[in-house]
Amino acid sequence: MSGGGFEAAGGAVHGEHPFLRPEQQREPVRRLRGRLSAPVTLWTAADGAQRAGLTVSSVLVGEPGQLAGLLGDESDVLEVLTASGAFAVTVLDWSRRPLADAFSFLGPAPGGPFTLATWTDTAWGPVPAGDVTWAGCRVTGVRTLGWSALVEARIEHVEPGADADPLVWQRGRYRHLG
């Protein structure tokens, strides 16, 4: 999702998003949210053999060691992290755009998104293998916030990986910070 057009599966499909309303008809709150730059993270959880994940950009980290995020209230990962009580949050870098797309259901993932990478199982959930930044979190609360579920958690473990080129989401596409 770079450049001026809407892309899917790695190639331009249209000059703009095919279902985009004219600017003056868009919801003001959504327009505000679109103008806020957000980190792209991957939330993963496991409960027994069941695994689930979702790309999440609505994330806040607070002190001391608190994390909050907004998830779709019907997402598979919400169901699994609620059942297990734990989840992992991986900070994605620019090279992991295909993984972000697969877990947000925007890109192809034959066999499912977990087939697109090698994973390390942790006490909090699966984490992409390699030098990635991730946190292991324990769920402390889940409540409805608008059309989303607000997940609150205590950060129990942090692995600071390489300081790579971060994946940032703004105005419906990935952006470079530099």
UniProtKB/TrEMBL annotation:
A family per Pfam: Flavin_Reduct
Record flagged with keyword Metal-binding: no
Lineage summary: Bacteria, Bacillati, Actinomycetota, Actinomycetes, Kineosporiales
Keyword field: Oxidoreductase
The keyword Oxidoreductase is annotated on this UniProt entry: yes
InterPro entries: Flavin_Rdtase-like_dom (IPR002563), NADH-dep_flavin_reductase (IPR050268), Split_barrel_FMN-bd (IPR012349)
Source organism, top-level taxon: Bacteria
Protein name: Flavin reductase family protein
Ranges of residues in domain Flavin reductase like: 33-176
Annotated spans, Disordered: 1-28
Compositionally biased intervals (Basic and acidic residues): 14-28
